[in-house]
Amino acid sequence: MAPRAIWKGAINFGLVTIPVGMYPSTESKTPKFKQLRKDDHSPIRYKRVAEADGEEVAWDDIVKGYEYQKERYVVLTDADFEKAALATNKTFEIQDFAPEDDVDPRYFEKPYYLIPQKGGERAYALLRDAMKNTGTLGIGTITLRKRQYLASIKPLHDAMVLDLMRFADEVLDASEYRFPGADYRPQELQMAEQLVGNLTEEFKPEKYKDEYRDNLEKIIQAKMKGKKVTLREAPEPEMTGVIDLMDRLKESLEGKSKKPSASRKKKSGTSKRRKSA
């Protein structure tokens, strides 16, 4: 069954209008679970209950309220949301083009395919290839489900992808956190760069597996058959200290095991005790 369009409208590119549909480009494969009562596995249902009297509330009696002071609300109706979205709910107006490498990846939230609708194929291909040749993406806003998003469109092979984005005030500034300075030796940086180079290869997404999901599925299948499954436990990670950083880099470049030898463990522990003495 083909995915349904999430949104249908048009891209405005100068005076060019391209009719498009917006479709999912990702799919979650994580198993879905229901909450059950422990004793008899009866499914749990949630009720919408009013705080004032504990009475259940029907959907038709529920409205949306903005709390502007504690326990004081202004209520918005569906008509209010429609009014706010009226001017923007059918078009994605490209306001600017920006070099793709200039956009901070923290702004990107979720990607969708843009599929040209009848009559828009030629303009679609033209915009796609123009952005591909100039290394740019288009920035604008789009309204979905009564909310406006910052968004970008960019080429991906023969397709164009629309990424929902975060607005500037939704991205935390890095200055709110503390990060380490360059407290290492030039030789360590040189070896680290060499190690990165040795491990660099073409990105192949199919190479990486969701081991957590695989383990869940193994457990589910075993339980369905009334069996137990034993999974290999992950070892506790051992942090690389300042003392043996150079040794670890050398061993990595030489292709040796990542696990530290017993002698080095002992030496590291001795050094730590001396330092703390």
Number of helices: 6
Overall geometric form: extended
Q: What is the C-level CATH assignment of the domain at 7-26 and 83-169?
A: Mainly Beta
CATH level-3 fold name of the domain at 7-26 and 83-169: Ku70, Chain: A, Domain 2
Q: What does the main sheet amount to? A: 7 strands, mixed, barrel
Q: Widest sheet: strand order?
A: 1-2-6-9-8-7-5
Beta-strand content bin = 25-35%
What's the Cα radius of gyration?
27 Å
Number of strands: 9
Assign a percent range to the helix content: 25-40%
Q: List the secondary-structure elements in sequence, H or E.
A: EEEEHEEHEEEHHHH
Roughly how many Å apart are the termini? 68 Å
Mean pLDDT: 81
Commentary on this structure:
This protein is of the alpha+beta class and 277 residues long. Among the domains are: 7-26 and 83-169, Ku70, Chain: A, Domain 2; 186-271, no CATH class. It has 6 helices and 9 strands, in the order ββββαββαβββαααα. The protein has a 7-stranded mixed barrel with strand order 1-2-6-9-8-7-5. Strands 3-4 form a two-stranded antiparallel sheet. Mean pLDDT is 81; it is low at 257-277.
How does the SSE layout of this entry go?
Blueprint: E1 7-13, E2 16-24, E3 64-69, E4 72-76, H1 78-85, E5 91-99, E6 108-116, H2 121-134, E7 136-144, E8 147-156, E9 159-165, H3 186-199, H4 211-224, H5 245-253, H6 262-276
Parallel strand pairs: 1-5
Antiparallel strand pairs: 1-2, 2-6, 3-4, 5-7, 6-9, 7-8, 8-9
Helix pairs in contact: 3-5
